[in-house]
Amino acid sequence: MASKQPVLRFPVLCLMGPTATGKSKLAVELALKLDCEIVSVDSVLVYRGMDIGTAKPTFEERQGVPHHLIDILDQSEAFSTGQFRRRALEAITAIRERGKTPMLVGGTMLYFRSLLQGLSSLPEAAPEIRREIDLEARCLGWGKMHEQLEQVDADSAARIHPNDPQRIQRALEVFRITGKTLTELCSGNPVDETPFIPVTAKILPLDRTRLHQRIETRFRRMIASGLVEEVAAMYRRGDLDPASPAVRAVGYRQVWAHLDGEIDYESMIEKGITATRQLAKRQMTWLRKESVSFVYDMECSDLAGRIHADVEPLVENCDLIE
């Protein structure tokens, strides 16, 4: 019998944390110290023309550090977790072949999980079914859609919060496409292996109130910088609607609702801030479940220097043979 071939795996730096913790700026500082290229782990930065509301780093802010999976899609396109995983692994492999260290940076925890824990073989997104589910949700509310999920897939409903429309939608979509529940498919399908060794640095707020303050300040700055005008340009296209993945992004959907006449200007701002805080809360819930190498307070002094000192011996290691 032929012996099993050794598997070559290599270290990849993973910088994760909730929104508004300063990951983008920190990532550039670390990339310059460690000779990294950055792979964005963000479900909204993939869209072209969505710069203000995503806090997308400008070319000047990137300081010459290559960033991957930013500005790769039109706003009308959907991007599944499976598509992200494939594109991210392609970028990681190419970066490694150039002799540099890949750095994964972002706050879309489902994307991170697909890379760190693998991904079961699930059906690709079906735009018509997603639109159908969204229309039902607009009439019934996501609470009722969660009840629907509970009826067909109690295990998934128990894992998914009633205020998490994206995951409710995906679980219902999988059931409507395949006739099988997400739980059945995930338990019955093999999981792809992850070809790298993650060196994870988690950025968290020691004081959650400070994060809430940052979120409010940043959102109001986005409004002052032209977020309403940015969303208005999307609104005028004519091929987007509230069910479009790009429009569902936090901040964008609140401004869209204002442009649609559903809420007034001040309510738009308050709802945008609240939705961003809720996003941060969900991200921190996910992060508490993740096994990580290092944890840091977002406001500790010389944060880039501290992370660099901790992770350099690990990411500079040669490839590991298993």
CATH architecture of the largest domain: 3-Layer(aba) Sandwich
Low-confidence stretches: 1-7
Task: Quickly give the structural class.
Answer: alpha/beta
Topology-level CATH name of the largest domain: Rossmann fold
Described by the principal axes of the CA atoms, the overall outline is globular
State the separation between the terminal residues, measured CA to CA. Answer: 19 Å
Beta fraction of the residues?
Answer: 5-15%
Q: Give me the oligomer status.
A: single chain
Mean pLDDT metric: 90
Q: What characterizes the major β-sheet?
A: 7 strands, mixed
Question: Number of helix segments?
Answer: 14
- The gyration radius over C-alpha positions equals 20 Å
Strand/helix succession: EHEHEHEHHHHHHEHHHHEHE
Helix content: 40-55%
CATH class of the largest domain equals Alpha Beta
Q: How many domains in all? A: 2
CATH homologous superfamily designation of the largest domain? P-loop containing nucleotide triphosphate hydrolases
Number of strands: 7
Task: Explain what the structure shows.
This protein is of the alpha/beta class and 322 residues long. The chain folds into two domains: 10-119 and 191-321, Rossmann fold (3-Layer(aba) Sandwich); 127-188, Histone, subunit A, CATH 1.10.20.140. The chain contains 14 helices and seven strands. Strands 1, 2, 3, 4, 5, 6 and 7 form a seven-stranded mixed sheet that branches. Helix 5 (127-140) packs across helix 8 and helix 11 (227-237) packs across helix 12. The longest helix is centred in the last third of the chain and has 25 residues, at 265-289.
